[in-house]
Specification:
Radius of gyration of chain A: 35 Å
Chains: A mainly alpha, B mainly alpha, C mainly alpha, D mainly alpha, E mainly alpha
Oligomer: heteropentamer
Number of helices of chain A: 31
Number of helices of chain E: 20
Number of domains of chain A: 3
Structural class of chain A: mainly alpha
Largest sheet of chain E: 2 strands, antiparallel
Number of domains of chain E: 2
Largest sheet of chain A: 2 strands, antiparallel
Number of strands of chain A: 2
Helix content of chain E: over 70%
Radius of gyration of chain E: 21 Å
Strand content of chain E: under 5%
Shape of chain E: globular
Chain lengths: ~650, ~100, ~170, ~450, ~475
């Protein structure tokens, strides 16, 4: 019976979305805010008792079937389930979503009612999508949630309708994530063909039982799906530009939930990844490489949101490293902790930038520490967790767990551990830059602005979680069936040293003018190693040239088709289509010219002229003179009589 | 070469003479006269064949031919009188309808 | 029943016909036509088709040609008309002669040579003709009367003074 | 006169009565009433003929046959006459119009049931002379000229037919069509002459020259008679000759040459015609050509094809001429623009008639075309098949040229002209006939199959 | 009896509607709706109490025995779905052309006749009658584009006519040849299916049929008529064209090749799938390059229908089910998009994407409905389009992975053109044309809601739809001897 409660969890946000989007009752500002908050927080209210009951063992794993489909002889049962992964994921999502909803209620209060309604509708839809993905017991609901998140991210990134930059960012995000979704869909469908059923608990064993090459392909496809959605290395360019969206969106989607969905996916299908060693290694390498890449780029950022974006990329890199090392539990632990402190950082940065005159540049944040002390304090706690400040911050525990898991995974793991350690140090450098900047004196006018308690409350809660979260790491790992890695005192000391050097580096970079100038000059690094420009040059521009070539916009193909709309500028080219028309015209002219009763009148006139000449000849015959008619008669008579007579000779 | 053969050849001759007349002569009157000559041909032919075969149908057909000739004369002359006013009796001038 | 006389009469008629058709003057043509028809009548008598001969002489040669003469008299076919006619005829007869000649050859040899099958020649009695015309051939008699009526209707309309409406439709 | 034969001669008698009645009443009564007086006996004749279609044969005299072909032909001729009566207006055909049309119908009936030389000759002449007389009625110069041309050529044709009968009579001793022996040269030449006589009336090339001028010059009823009554009757007479004689070479070869030439010349000449009536004239030559090709090819389907073709052509040409009569003889292509909108019934009637003549699906012409092509293909007569195909392709071009013009939007909205009731009835009847038979050809095909031996 | 009503009712309804304006204003519109609704009711009634065998309903009566033509109408799940769509789209057309006043009686009559002809195609199983309705269908569409279109409509209507008429010849030739060579002249599809032609003969006949279906589908290279026809057609014309005429091509491919030429189909299937794959990519790429909104959607239709072609040629249960679902989904989504673009053009007078924009601000209802069908256009899960494409991809995975990959590429490219479309129309600052823009009127909103509901309901609960198509799919698979893998 309790299982059906599970089905109810994603329904309130869905209902909220419908009410807000279709807006049957023409709600005003206050009811809209109230409804959004209610719909946003309801899943937390519904799911928490279930989660607590589950974690305390009061209720075991359960599956709530929604309805069944049959394709021919296949029975396809859609359902939701409660198991360690979904419990942890769902609880994190609901908690973070509620915080962001409350924060957004204050942050977005300046918008028009219509925009507000649209914003909260999409946020609720997103939460429904994420929850249904996490709780899904079968691949169809999973993919439904997965794609729904992609759609909402597109609309939310381009929330600011009038700015073309926002729309471009949204489009780029949607296209890149869609490439990954296509790979994921392929993987899921292949799995479905293997298992002839959609249920996760049947897909995974079937995937394991599949023969070598197919299992490898499926694993690679799933990995690509994860990389795309979580903006890992090959697909990472869309996340920084996605910062064009409002801060709550960044806080919810592009830090805690959607971007980390890749990690949840890999954790869900971890057995498949581990079954094929090559793919596991690839995941780990991709993770570490992205972590390093993200950290490096973050250092050079001048905008706090882009900095945090790159930091999300690198943190998720760590999660992938954990999964690669065969410890999905550790990855999920870091997912939880990361969700807390990353959303905290985004929201705090939002308040600070509001206080610092609205721009998110780090320079503009100078002196905001004194204007918005609480949010500055919470930001500092978040930064500490991000940098993995030893013992005190939750980030340290989850990062240690990951590094420990890497060390335990053998010689290859130790090498990755070393790289990850460097990454951790770099993380420390960029994590504290905004904090230190905010502490410095304002250049000229002192920043004013205030902190409303509505915005600050979630920050405080998240700050607490960022500190106390460390205690959650052990239980999460055990819940997920992994064992907490104890890599010995030396490794932990090395970790702490890395964090400390990070802090020192950050202080140095901020306050030593020469280092600070070098960071400002690192333009290539700031632009994410120009990966964006490279993609544009090698992928987007050739594609645009093909499209223009085929659609005839460069006019070359369009002109010679002759009359009709083909010749006008714009989207008419379509070589294959016009090829058929040209062939048809040629055929008509050659074969059926005189009989084509059709608009191609040039053809008709030529055909008609021959018939006309013959017609004229016959009409001249009809001279009108009676004597000629009589002559014609006599001629006919003569011919027939001669023939008649001739016939009888035989 | 029985008598009937000769007579039939002569009746064909009459017919062809009439046909020549219609084809060659331009004035309406002469064309009408040639028409009468043409109809005289079959008259002779029917009577000759009827006599040769001893069947009365020849004479009967002769009477029918006669009836036709009479009707044609009437109509022909009426048309001739009417057209004389417009085209002066010349059949070649009457070419309003052509092409 | 003397076939010789019949053939002789037919040849005379043929000669007269040829001359009638080629004379420029209408009056000469008319007279020659009359001669041809009369000689045909004699031929019919020679072939013992007395009733047909009588009809030929009385109606065909008499009444029909009489109408022609009457019409020719009303129009003054003077000599300048004859000159114009001769002019018109001179260079117009070559083609018709050739084309009509086409069918003369097969007629002469085809009909001339064709086997006619021996028939039992018998005089065509008027009584048999009457029996046939109003017995088996009653339908044909009815139809020939209808034909004459049609001709009469046409002539009567052409002869009538134009009604008011018709006159305004064609003013001439 | 067994009782059966009374019914077999009744149609001819009724038509004669109609002619006489119309002639008598012409000077006294106004023409519409005269038309009704002529129409009633005709309608009765049609009904009797259709009723007796299945009845046993009862020939009234040796001159008139009474088999299925004769009855169907007579019915079509009489029905066509009825249709033509509806648009013989006093303005163009004088007070004597109805009488002449009745006579022509009687001639058609006689010719359709002629199995003897006399009725063949009389039937042929009875359809021609009324046409000449009718052509003269408007007394305009063009009409009289057309009448004269028809008069002379038809006279010459009649002379040729008579010579043919003379030779046949001379050779075989009897004037009955089925008694001809075809072996000697005399009979062959005789048959050639008869073929020439019939071809003149059938307007096959090179004897067709009177037809376009007559259609263009003379008033509408004359063209209608030439197109429907005379074509139907001559086709059936030719069919009867073709069926009774054992396949003489001259007959089939003559028809093949004349027919093929007619199809090609008729269609080509009609291609660039702008005058509606002249185009109909040339296209009627072409349709005679198609029938002649079928007659020349023979085969067991020949009878059915001729009857179906004729039955489908007659209503179409009558409808076309009803509309042409309404719009005057000089109607050019341009005058037809937007006819469907200014005169809906007339526009649709002409449109459907043209579609049927072109042989397009919704109208019965399509069925006739199927029969035509299946006969030609069935007998593997590739020459005529190719000629017929080219002909009908050309036919599409000029028929559709006129048909499309009718349905295009008029430049300036022409006033809605009112039709008199008789015209409206005739047009509506022909549309209904053409479309229903086109969509559901079963009654026509079974009727034709029943009427053939 | 119910079946023949499906054809006769709209036909005679059309005739009645012609004279409806005499009785009062807008009577022709109510008349058409009544006719369509009645047809739908009759359909539902005859579908519900249809017998459980292969065919829900079967009507057999001879029409012209001397030519071997008979009235043979049969309906199963697939044709029932198609008939339902045609009636629904008929009603939608009437709603959205509420402001068409130029010769509106004839306009509504033509709509009825298009539906009648399409119903004829969906029901006829006598090949000649099928070919007859197939040719008949072109005429009302030609009139719709030719008379009520805008811009260069004669050219477009003529191009449409020539393409479809010439293609129809292929079908006619094949049908006549089959009918003539059959032992006794008959065009009955069931009798002919046992005629046992040899494989090469089957391939040739199949090409004849396929030519007609592929031009109507349309699949490159026979698609040149679609963009012109759509850009010049009135809104109702576009909807009937996209929603109905394209489906007859798909229905034809779904029904006749497997029934009549199984071996021929198996021989040709790989090439068919390759052509479909090419069509998917080609249509999608061209859609990205379009400047005119309707042209863009026309090219997306080409891409979607190429997926249907791939599905039908797949010969596997999933592929055929996917093709069936995609057909119906595309009917809903493309009709709705055309409706919206039509409404847009009606208000702003232009379809050029460069001059539109910013509708979110001025017309939120329009923007929201556009968003729903934007999701459908890029096959977002939860819409029927996704289900169709996913099934086809699954089928392709079973047959050939390359084609599956290409179909996946179409998923990605569809995002590019879909975002380009919504970006140009909904996003951005309102330009001069779209500054004053009154929102969707009720008579435009209700059809949108109906079509949206159709897409979403079938997307989330496809059970109803797939159940309906099962018998048709199994029948299509039987002769291929493939059965359920």
């Amino acid at each position: 019976m309790l299982a059906y409660l599970l089905l109810l969890v994603p329904l309130p946000p869905l209902g909220g979305f419908l009410l807000l989007a279709l807006d049957p009752y023409r709600l005003d500002r206050r009811p809209v805010l109230a409804l959004s908050l209610a719909a946003g927080i309801a899943p937390l209210v519904l799911f928490l008792p279930l989660a607590i009951a589950y974690f305390t063992g009061a209720v075991g794993d359960m599956i709530a079937p929604a309805f069944t489909l049959n394709f021919g002889q296949y029975e396809v049962a859609l359902a939701m389930q409660l198991d360690p992964l979904s419990a942890i994921g769902a609880s994190t999502v609901t908690v973070v979503a509620s915080c962001v909803m409350i924060y957004a209620a204050d942050y977005m209060s300046g918008a028009r009612v219509a925009d507000l309604r649209r914003f909260f509708a999409l946020m609720n839809l997103f939460q429904a999508g994420m929850l249904s993905m996490v709780l899904a017991a079968d691949s169809i609901v999973f993919f439904l949630g997965w794609e729904l998140m992609g759609l909402c991210s597109f609309f939310l990134i381009s929330y600011n309708m009038t700015s073309p930059r926002a729309f471009a960012a949204g489009q780029k995000a949607f296209v890149m994530t869609r490439i990954a979704d296509a790979a994921l869909l392929a993987g899921l469908l292949l799995l479905f063909l293997e298992a002839t059923s959609v249920r996760m608990d049947e897909l995974i064993p079937a995937g394991l039982a599949a023969e070598e090459s197919r299992a490898a392909i499926i694993a690679v496809l799933l990995l690509v799906g994860a990389l795309g959605k979580s903006a890992q290395l090959p697909f990472q360019t869309w996340l920084p530009t996605a910062m064009a969206g409002p801060t709550p969106v960044s806080a919810l989607l592009h830090s805690a939930t959607m971007v980390a969905a890749g990690a949840v996916l890999l954790a869900r299908f971890a057995p498949l990844i581990e079954a094929t060693p090559g793919v596991a290694a690839a995941t780990a390498i991709a993770g570490v490489a992205t972590a390093l890449f993200g950290a490096l780029c973050a250092i050079a950022q001048t905008d706090v949101k882009r900095l945090l974006a790159y930091s999300s990329i690198s943190q998720i890199g760590y999660m992938l490293l954990a999964v690669g090392m065969g410890a999905p539990g550790v990855a999920m632990a870091h997912f939880v902790i990361h969700a807390f402190f990353k959303s905290l950082l985004f929201m705090a940065a939002g308040v600070l930038s509001h206080a610092g005159g609205g721009s998110t540049a780090i320079e503009k944040l100078r002196g905001t520490a004194y204007v918005a002390p609480i949010s500055f304090a919470t930001y500092t706690v978040g930064a500490a967790a991000l940098a993995g400040f030893p013992i005190l911050s939750a980030g340290w525990w989850s990062k240690e767990a990951i590094l420990g898991a890497a060390v335990e995974a053998g010689p290859f793991g130790q090498f990755l551990w070393l790289v990850a350690l460097g990454g951790a140090a770099l993380t420390g450098v960029y994590a504290y830059r905004p904090v230190l900047c905010a502490l410095r004196k304002p250049l000229h006018d002192a920043p004013k602005g205030h902190e409303s308690w509505l915005a600050v409350a979630p920050l405080i809660f998240l700050a607490i979680m960022s500190v106390l979260g460390g205690y959650l790491v052990e239980p999460i790992i055990h819940e997920m069936g992994g064992h907490a890695p104890h890599a010995g005192l030396g490794i932990e000391v090395m970790g702490a040293l890395a964090a400390i050097t990070g802090l020192i580096g950050s202080v140095a970079v901020t306050f030593i003018p020469s280092w600070n100038a070098r960071i400002k000059r690192a333009r290539r690094l700031r632009a994410g190693m120009q990966m964006d420009a490279i993609y544009y040059a090698f992928l987007v521009r050739p594609y645009r040239r093909i499209v223009r070539l085929l659609s005839g916009r460069d006019g070359r193909l369009g002109k010679h088709i002759g009359e009709g709309p083909e010749a006008q500028e714009g989207g008419m080219g379509d070589p294959v289509g016009t090829a058929t028309v040209v062939f048809g015209l040629w055929l008509a002219r050659v074969v059926t010219a005189p009989f084509m009763p059709d608009r191609f009148d040039t053809v008709i006139m030529r055909g008609a002229r021959e018939a006309q000449r013959a017609g004229l000849w016959t009409r001249r015959l009809q001279s009108g003179r009676l004597r000629d008619y009589a002559l014609g008669f006599a001629l006919g008579l003569g011919v027939l009589v001669i023939l008649g007579w001739g016939m009888t000779w035989g | 070469m029985t008598a009937l053969n000769i007579l039939l050849v002569l009746s064909a001759g009459l017919f062809l003479a009439g046909l020549f007349g219609v084809a060659a002569r331009r004035t309406l009157l002469m064309q009408l006269i040639s028409l009468e000559v043409m109809l005289a041909g079959p008259a002779l032919g029917f009577i000759a064949a009827g006599a040769h075969h001893g069947s009365i149908e020849g004479s009967a057909m002769f009477i029918l031919v006669l009836g036709l000739a009479a009707a044609e004369v009437a109509l022909g002359l009426a048309i001739y009188l009417h057209m004389r006013r417009a085209t002066g009796g010349d059949s070649d001038a009457a070419t309003r309808l052509r092409g | 029943m003397s076939w010789g006389l019949a053939i002789w009469a037919a040849t005379v008629a043929f000669g007269a016909a040829i001359l009638a058709v080629t004379r420029p003057s209408a009056v000469h043509a008319l007279l020659l036509l009359l001669a041809a028809l009369i000689s045909l009548g004699v031929g019919f008598f020679a072939m013992a088709a007395n009733f047909a001969g009588a009809i030929q002489l009385l109606i065909y040669a008499g009444a029909v040609v009489a109408v022609f003469v009457f019409v020719v008299m009303t129009i003054d076919a003077g000599d300048e008309a004859m000159a114009a006619e001769r002019e018109l005829l001179r260079h117009a007869w070559r083609w018709p002669a050739l084309i009509v000649g086409l069918s003369v050859v097969p007629v002469i040899f085809g009909i001339g040579g064709g086997a006619m099958g021996e028939g039992d020649p018998a005089p065509a009695l008027a009584s048999d003709l009457g029996l046939l015309m109003f017995g088996d051939w009653s339908a044909a008699t009815e139809l020939i009367t209808l034909l004459l009526i049609a001709g009469m209707l046409g002539v009567r309309h052409l002869g009538r003074k134009l009604g008011p409406r018709l006159r305004e439709r064609n003013p001439e | 006169m067994t009782d059966g034969s009374i019914w077999s001669v009744a149609p001819l008698v009724l038509l004669g009565l109609a002619a006489i009645l119309a002639m008598v009443l012409a000077p006294i009564q106004p023409t519409p009433r005269v038309r009704i007086a002529a129409a009633l006996p005709m309608a009765l004749a049609v009904i009797i003929l259709l009723a007796r279609l299945g009845a046993p044969e009862a020939p009234v005299s040796m001159l008139l046959a009474d088999d299925g072909m004769a009855r169907l032909g007579s019915a079509l001729a009489a029905a066509a006459g009825l249709g033509i009566l509806s648009f013989t207006r006093t303005i163009c055909t004088g007070r004597e119009g109805p009488a002449l049309v009745a006579i022509a119908a009687a001639g058609g009936v006689a010719l359709a049931s002629a199995n003897h030389g006399a009725t063949l000759f009389l039937g042929l002449e009875l359809t021609t002379l009324p046409m000449v007389a009718l052509a003269l009625m408007p007394r305009t110069e063009a009409a009289v000229e057309a009448g004269y041309k028809l008069f002379l050529i038809a006279g010459v044709g009649a002379g040729a037919l008579l010579m043919g009968l003379v030779f046949g009579f001379g050779a075989s001793g009897s004037l009955r069509l089925d008694a001809w022996s075809v072996d000697g040269p005399v009979a062959a030449i005789g048959l050639a002459f008869v073929l020439v006589g019939l071809s003149v009336k059938f307007a096959l090339v090179p004897f067709h020259m009177w037809s376009p001028d007559l259609f263009a010059g003379a008033p509408a009823p004359v063209g209608a008679i030439a197109g429907s009554i005379s074509k139907v009757a001559v086709a059936i007479a030719a069919l009867r000759i073709g069926l009774s004689l054992p396949a003489p070479e001259i007959w089939t070869l003559g028809l093949l040459l004349a027919g093929g030439a007619a199809v090609i010349l008729g269609n080509l000449a009609a291609l660039r015609q702008d005058n509606l009536l002249r185009m109909l004239g040339y296209s009627s030559i072409a349709h005679s050509g198609y029938i002649a090709l079928v007659l020349s090819v023979g085969g067991e389907l020949m009878g059915e094809t001729v009857l179906v073709y004729v039955a489908s052509y007659a209503p179409a040409i009558v409808a076309a001429f009803a509309v042409a009569g309404l719009m005057g003889t000089g109607t050019r292509l341009e005058d037809l623009r937007g006819l469907a909108w200014s005169r809906p019934l007339a526009g649709v009637a002409l449109g459907v008639a043209l579609l049927s003549m072109a042989g397009l699906p919704p109208a019965v012409g399509f069925v006739a075309k199927i029969y035509l092509f299946s006969t030609l293909a069935g007998e593997a007569a590739w020459g005529p098949l190719v000629i017929a195909a080219i002909g009908s392709a050309l036919g599409f071009a000029y028929y559709l040229r006129f048909a499309v013009r009718i349905f295009t939007a008029p430049r300036q909205p022409a006033p809605r002209a009112t039709l008199n009731r008789a015209d409206a009835v005739a047009m509506a009847a022909s549309i209904a006939l053409l479309i229903t038979l086109g969509l559901y050809p079963e009654p026509l095909t079974s009727l034709v199959a029943a009427s053939l031996p | 009896m119910g079946l023949s009503l499906q054809i006769l009712l709209p036909f005679f309804g059309g005739l009645a509607v012609l004279f409806a304006p005499r009785f009062g204003r807008d009577y022709e519109r109510y008349g058409t709706i009544a006719v369509m609704a009645l047809t739908l009711l009759v359909l539902i009634f005859s579908a519900l109490n249809g017998d459980s065998g292969r065919w829900l309903q079967l009507v057999q009566a001879d029409w012209a025995p001397s030519f071997g033509i008979q009235v043979l109408l049969a309906m199963d799940g697939l044709s029932a779905a198609m008939l339902a769509i045609s009636s629904i789209l008929g009603i939608v057309c009437v709603f959205i052309s509420w402001e068409v006043t130029h010769r509106s009686a004839m306009y509504h009559a033509v709509i009825c006749w298009t539906v009648a002809a399409a119903n004829g195609v969906f029901l006829a199983f006598d090949l000649l009658v099928f070919a007859f309705f197939w040719e008949l269908m072109i005429i009302p569409a030609f009139l719709l584009i030719g008379l009520w279109g805008h811009g260069n409509r004669e050219h477009a209507a003529m191009k449409f006519l020539v393409f479809n008429a010439v293609a129809g010849l292929g079908l006619l030739a094949a049908v006549f040849w089959m009918g003539a060579t059959a032992p006794e002249i008959t065009f009955d599809a069931f009798v002919l299916s046992e005629a046992g032609y040899s494989t090469p003969v089957q391939v040739i006949l199949l090409l004849g049929f396929a030519l007609a279906f592929m031009v109507k589908l349309p699949v490159p290279p026979f698609h040149a008529w679609l963009p012109d026809a759509h850009t010049q057609a009135p809104t109702a014309g576009s909807i009937l064209l996209a929603g109905l005429l394209l489906k007859t091509g798909a229905y034809g491919l779904f029904r006749f090749p497997p029934l009549l030429f199984p071996e021929g189909l198996m021989a040709v299937a790989p090439y068919g799938m390759a052509l479909g794959a090419f069509g998917v990519v080609y249509g999608a790429i061209l859609a990205c390059g379009q400047v005119d909104a309707k042209r863009l959607i026309a090219y997306t239709s080409i891409a979607h229908m190429s997926i249907v072609l791939m599905g039908v040629c797949g010969g596997v249960h999933f592929a055929l089910a996917g093709a069936g679902v995609e057909m119906i989904a595309h009917a809903f989504s493309s009709s709705a998009l055309f409706l919206l673009i039509g409404a847009l053009q009606h208000r702003t007078g232009t379809r050029d994407l460069r001059e539109l924009g910013g509708l979110q601000k001025t017309a939120p209802a329009f923007a929201t409905s556009f968003a729903v069908f934007f999701a459908a256009a890029l096959a977002m899960p939860g819409t029927a389009n996704f289900l169709g494409e996913a099934l086809v991809i699954t089928g392709m995975f079973q047959v050939n992975w390359a084609f599956a990959a290409i179909a996946l590429v179409s998923l990605v490219v569809s995002v590019v053109y879909a975002t380009r479309l919504i970006g140009a129309i909904v996003f951005g600052k309102p330009k001069s044309e779209t500054a004053v823009f009154e929102d969707l009127k009720p008579y435009e909103l209700w059809p949108i809601i109906a079509l949206g509901a159709g897409t979403i309901v079938f997307g989330l609960f496809p059970q109803v739809l797939i159940g309906w198509l099962r018998p048709a799919i199994d029948a299509a698979l039987l002769p291929l001897g493939v059965g359920a893998p």
